[in-house]
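Q: Protein A?
A:
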Amino acid sequence: MRAMTDITPRDRREVEKWVVRMLDEPERHRAALARWLLAKPGRRELYDQLFASVEDASQAMPMPALDQAKPAPIDRVSRRPLVAAAAAFLLLLLGASTYLAVSRSDAGPAQDSTQPLVLSTRPGEVRLERLDDGSHLTLDGDTRITVHLASGERRFDLARGRVRFVLASDPRRPLLVRAGDQSVSGTGGVFDVANNGRLAIVMFKGRLELTPHSAFGRSSQPLWLRSGQKLAFASGQPSHPSVMPASPADWQWTNDVKSFDDVPISDLIAEANGYSPVKISLADPTLGQRRIFGDIHIRDANSVAQAIATFLGATIDRSNPDQLVIRK
């Protein structure tokens, strides 16, 4: 059991990434995973425990006993429901069956048979809303969205902010999420849409197709966004958006504690300041380029400032009650 006691928080964050990679492209990552597991004995047990708990992961495969010289083949096994905290992110990456298409919103507003529902949050507020059809929306701080539930359509107009959509699948009432001049359509799924000067989408369950339009230059083959991937682009940008792998941090914004892995300190401060009236700043702005990792209580300005100060070997100036100035 000593091997598991040697496991660090960084190992636990990395094992989630390895499971996600194996869900996506097992052949590509098999050898690298074998090397990572062999580097520390406890990692093998950690990976097996997390992977064995994943339910209905059709592409991920567990690692068998590993030969030091050559990784053994990978076999499929049955999965059990996951109850660990890290599993919430992984479960929502699985069971891909939803098809979403992103396209420019050229059509006019639909005629709804019900009154629209306007939902909004204050800066720093995160709120869960349950809809009449059993779907859930989680609104990030300073978000405004209008919900139209009709007999033949579910439409969501995101004016600003970020929303986590957990939408019941209903082919008879397809969904349409509009943000600026872009839209996401489908029948259901689990995904984030953010409209903060640019459109950002993170797909947790299902797959998504982005059809290039004039905003991205000449039309080309559709761009697929699968479970565990994300993209972001600004309206009218000349180039195609880049698809990137999602990370556990993309899921964790609905929680108080969030994992940061090799993130610029300036980005961490910007996110924390969005949740608190007490603002964090750096006396030396160049320190914002330093990169930090750790599990941080993102909605507690004091916790964030203390984590940054400890990382930098700095002090916190609390002379102004509305500011936490980090000085080194």
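Q: Protein B?
A:
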Amino acid sequence: MITIAVAGGSSAGLGRSILTALKQYPDQLKGVVLGRASSKTPQWLEKMGVEVRKVDYSSVDSLTAALQGVHTVICVLLAKDGTGESSQINLLNAGLRAGISRFAPTEFGCGLLANPRVDILRPRHIVTDACREAQQKHPGFEYACFNVGLFMNYLGYGAPDEEGALNGLNDTWVWVWDVKGMKAAIPLTKEGKVPRMTTTEIGDVGKFVAAACLLPKGSWKEDFGMVGETIHMDEVVKIIESVRGKKMEVTFRPYDQVVEENQKEEIVYPNKFWGQLEEMVARNAVGEGIVNPVLNELCPEVRPMSVEQYVRKFWS
């Protein structure tokens, strides 16, 4: 039995999707949640019957005690107070002290090349660098950065079954496609073409993570990309129009305009964050908006939902 500690696992989106997927392997995988001592355990987590270990992320001793018997640590921490990187470093150091074998930092975004280009994501390299150093010092230790692109669930805002469509996603920012309002604002590449981007449904993210936990020793690598679908952004418009039976009002945004707006933007979040993501996608680069399907190849038993399947499921 492999015990997997999900740090931040009380989140209704990623945390719940990973724990739900781990439950599909009751004879092989056991999920436990690391939760802040000051946080209340949500009702859905209590009903799931998963063990919750209360911790102090500022204390390596507290974390070391909680990680006894743990094989793999998966981080989905959301620290709005700016302690995300320090908490993960403490968690990594505690894990190494407790004898963990695998560690996955909080990523679950676009490719690793994207982080240096997005202000809010730039500090993430601190944790990745620490993982690289740990691997050099501790033979047999493995780490992986799970990259997913954009959550497909952003297409779910305003759907008839919005709760099911969002699958725990808690972010009200409508980006590129306003499916309810039937409007879209698509950034263009420098050459004036429509870029491709990767998108993955939250539930499928959990399935890929669980499958990755079952991979044999030595399989984990830094770039653990997973792909629901990589698709041209205007193809998403065509799918929405087909399913909803009406036309979207589409605006195409020149690359230079997107860049100029980001340079002038002063509100770091959410405005500049989403603006920089738009600019990143417009670069149409593998390792940024386009994710390598590493886990799709390693875990072919996971069959993720396509954009059309998602839109038909929640907007038909």
